[in-house]
Amino acid sequence: MSISIENKVALVTGANRGIGKAIVESFINHGAKKVYLAVRDTSSTKELEEKYGNKVVTIKADVSNSQSIKDLAQKANDVDVVVNNAGLGTPYATIGENVEEDFRQQLEVNAFGLLRVANAFAKTLEDKKGALVQLNSIASIKNFSQLSTYSASKAASYSLTQGLRTELGAKGVSILSVHPGPIDTDMAATAGFETDSTTEEVAEGIVSALKAGDFHLFPDAMAKQVEGAYQSFSDKVVLADMNE
């Protein structure tokens, strides 16, 4: 299903920096009517508010808190497109003294956060025949040892995204699973990745993928290499109707 951003109302979690901020700016540049900036620190979006005025609305929200996301959905009940960008990415290997705690924290944000957002906005998106965009990463497909717990949490969110494609897709909601490689963000730098790929590549890719009605988006150079190797499996297993 094709979704144009023009004249749409959108919501972006983690909208204050990095990929989230780039998505906000890209949506507005492509004609979005309004973008909700869902962030934990409402003072962190001042730059976007000053630049875009009444085209953006900041709302306090925490994807790790169920009530916070339910409240968010009540306040932003006119959305056409929801982008679940907020995520936690700490570099942690599989073997480590505090690995269980680290993995639990990343699951809370990266996987349970998606469940909270999807369930809270499901009815609105069904009514609007809108779209849900989930930032998943190539780490959802391949485990990177220095990011093992992050990779596992994103694998869980990718699996849930596939479930949403089946359930909400049947009700007219477009689902887009975004799989960037290392992008020039604070998280990539902390993990030790050097990259020339930009947040704008991801944001512009989302606009194009929504218009094309795609389920997967591999927006940058490294991600496209993964896409090339993954395409056959995706077509024959992930996107296939195994009930036939």
TrEMBL record:
<keyword id="KW-0560">Oxidoreductase</keyword>
<comment type="similarity">
    <text>Belongs to the short-chain dehydrogenases/reductases (SDR) family.</text>
</comment>
<protein>
    <submittedName>
        <fullName>SDR family oxidoreductase</fullName>
    </submittedName>
</protein>
<keyword id="KW-0521">NADP</keyword>
<dbReference type="InterPro" id="IPR020904">
    <property type="entry name" value="Sc_DH/Rdtase_CS"/>
</dbReference>
<dbReference type="InterPro" id="IPR036291">
    <property type="entry name" value="NAD(P)-bd_dom_sf"/>
</dbReference>
<dbReference type="InterPro" id="IPR002347">
    <property type="entry name" value="SDR_fam"/>
</dbReference>
<dbReference type="Pfam" id="PF00106">
    <property type="entry name" value="adh_short"/>
</dbReference>
